[in-house]
């Protein structure tokens, strides 16, 4: 009886030990590519189109008169961004053409140009950039008061904000609002009467930009 059980007992005891000595056959590790974030750093150039709403106010004793107009707006811009973590700093210049020409009574206002040199501060959410923009604005506004023309203040400030989306590595789309204020210009008519003229602009525009030199992607370290 013992002779019959001996081989079975030996196999039961020695089996696990022999199996432990066999080479391991673990599955090969699965490669997971690193997640990368879009980098907004670089020089860019673009074009935009939209609308402009001008508000002018002529004031003299005994009251004031508003001369408001609107126009299609279009132009181009160029700038440079530098990304620091999630924040993006930039410098941008733009020139816009428009065709505001409005007459109220003996008053007339004409404007064909808007331009600006601005700083930009944005927060990047990968391919989406939410930004504020502001700086020095320029205009070519002229106004008439029953005869000769006068030049409005050509320099003021502008401020606004927008959203930009990188739909390709080197192409972006944007939507932006901008407010311009050129202050108050004080003049004297040929008859010797003093008057003032105040001018502001509100603009809304959409644009497309090309970013030169696609930089290397920034790796994002996944946390587990």
Structural class: mainly beta
Termini separation (Å)?
59 Å
Order of helices and strands: HEEEEEEEEEEEE
* CA radius of gyration: 34 Å
Number of helices: 1
Number of strands: 12
Helix content: under 10%
Count of folded domains: 1
In CATH's first tier, which class applies? Mainly Beta
Could you tell me the strand content as a percent range? over 45%
Largest beta-sheet characterization: 8 strands, antiparallel, barrel
Report the uncertain regions: none
Give me some keywords for this one:
224 residues, eight-stranded antiparallel beta barrel, 12 strands, two-stranded antiparallel sheet
Account of the 3D structure:
The chain has 224 residues and is mainly beta. The protein has one domain (49-213): Porin (Beta Barrel), CATH 2.40.160. Helices cover 8% and strands 68% of the residues. It contains one helix and twelve strands; from the N terminus they run αββββββββββββ. It has one helix at residues 2-20; strands at 35-37, 42-60, 63-84, 87-104, 107-125, 128-139, 142-145, 149-151, 155-168, 171-188, 194-211, 218-220. The strands form two sheets. The protein has an eight-stranded antiparallel β-barrel with strand order 2-3-4-5-6-9-10-11. Strands 1-12 form a two-stranded antiparallel sheet. The longest helix is centred in the first third of the chain and has 19 residues, at 2-20. The mean pLDDT is 84.
Concise summary:
Its main location: membrane. Residues 29-212 form the Outer membrane protein beta-barrel domain. With 224 residues, this protein is mainly β.
């Amino acid at each position: 009886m013992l002779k019959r059980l001996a081989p079975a007992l030996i196999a039961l005891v020695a089996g696990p030990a022999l199996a432990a000595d066999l080479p391991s056959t673990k599955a090969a590790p699965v490669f997971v590519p690193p997640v990368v974030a879009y980098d907004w750093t670089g020089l860019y150039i673009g074009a935009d189109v939209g609308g402009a709403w001008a508000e002018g106010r002529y004031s003299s004793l005994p009251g004031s008169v508003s001369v408001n107009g609107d126009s299609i707006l279009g132009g181009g811009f160029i700038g440079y961004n530098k990304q620091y973590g999630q924040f993006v700093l930039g410098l941008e210049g733009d020139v816009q053409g428009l065709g505001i020409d409005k007459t109220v009574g003996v008053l007339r206002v004409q404007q064909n140009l808007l331009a600006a040199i601005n700083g930009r501060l944005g927060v990047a959410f990968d391919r989406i950039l939410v930004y504020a923009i502001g700086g020095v604005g320029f205009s070519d506004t002229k106004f008439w008061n029953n005869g000769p023309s006068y030049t409005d203040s050509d320099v003021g400030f502008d401020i606004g904000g927008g959203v930009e989306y990188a739909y390709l590595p080197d192409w972006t789309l944007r939507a932006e609002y901008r407010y311009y204020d050129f202050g108050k210009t004080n003049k004297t008519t040929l008859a010797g009467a003093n008057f003032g003229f105040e001018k502001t602009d509100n603009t809304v525009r959409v644009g497309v930009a090309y970013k030169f030199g696609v930089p290397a992607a920034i790796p994002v370290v996944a946390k587990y």
